[in-house]
Specification:
Length: 471
Amino acid sequence: MNTNNVYDSLKEIFEEQSLAFLKYGPPTLGSRKNALTRLEEEILLYKNEIAQAISSDFGHRSYHETLMTEIFVCIKTIHHTKKYLKKWMKPRRRPVPWYCRPGKAKIHYQPLGVVGIMSPWNYPFQLCIGPMIAAISAGNRVILKPSGRMPETGKIIEKIISKVFERNEVAVVSGSGVNDAFIQLPFNHLLYTGSTRIGKKVMRAASENLTPVTLELGGCSPVIVAKDFPVQKAVYSILTGKLFNAGQTCISANHAFIHESQVDQFVEYAVKAIKKMYSTALDNADYTNIVSKERYDNLRLLIEDAKSKGAKIIQPHEQELLQSNKRKILPTIIINTTPEMQVMKEEIFGPILPVISYDSIYDVIEKIEHNQRPLALYCFTYDQETIDTILRSTTSGGACINDTLLHFIQDDLPFGGVGHSGMGRYHGIHGFETFSNAKGVFYQSKVNIMGALRPPYGRLFKTVMDFFIGK
């Protein structure tokens, strides 16, 4: 199918949804909650097939990781949304200045219309369905574009969606040439999750239609372990987040700042932690594949580049390299890093953790602030002054204190990036607001003083203005 035919096919779905939105108007609270209930039922019904599809696309994906990050996160998002949706939909009162009283001011939230959602490959179900839940809760119609790298996952998404929604409510599109055509559609809002490079392309295309965008992009998220924090405890939290999904998580720690007096201790505990969490790596069902040979080869090159430039490579399961040709990268710690190493210049997106020694927290802050703003920042310390200093002096999309990743699953916290790591927020009420038009409405009362400010301007006008702004 040529490019024009692809665009025409997508435009037909878009216009079908736009006409349905105009014809039927905003869905009721009851219809939105019913749709979410049916969606939950189908997700639970097909949870094993979802896991199988994702694992097939990855070459192998831990079943338990899929249950946690794809199924559980979607189900809890539905529960949270249904619990608070009535409250979110109600007009919200706002203060009125005394000279406009007894008038009233309210914000009314109305759906935007047709929303486009483009999801990535690393969490292919949850990062497709999660934003859709927010868009549906706000009363929109949705066109989903799952990652082309995950064809089996795309099929199960389409199967579930077709059982819950009509095509003029939610549609799933896929195929060759769809990405470029998709971002040209005049959506009322477009959410994209993926790389910064493609995010720029999405934003340029959206600007042609003045389509507002939410961009959830990457970022080299740092983790800081202050000297007062127990190293062993920090190690387990950091590596749990780093090795989850084999490091293919946009908010996983990209590199760790460890006090110079504790680097050896950190490495010692890291080796023990890796062996405890994964007694083997390459033939371990709990340890996920790298998604593609291209990504696998790139990660191998990062390790070799660091090694050739003087870094020390620590792989607790190094002996397994001769036992398997599977597309898995061993959990890897890199010390003695330098800025010239490629692993220090890019988002790693794999189970590789460079360790950077530091003397002063202020040196760490300076290094973080001299790089692009990250999607997440992690800080391990019990000292409140240190926490306040780091949060005040650094800018990141989100942050988590004394753990990693867990800010993502807080339904009442906004999630998103800043600068090169993205723009816009969703999750919980913030997703509802992102996909809504917040319409400010003023209700004038029967009795008011504003009539004194109408032409012809005479003594009464002068008296009122003198009172308002002074003589």
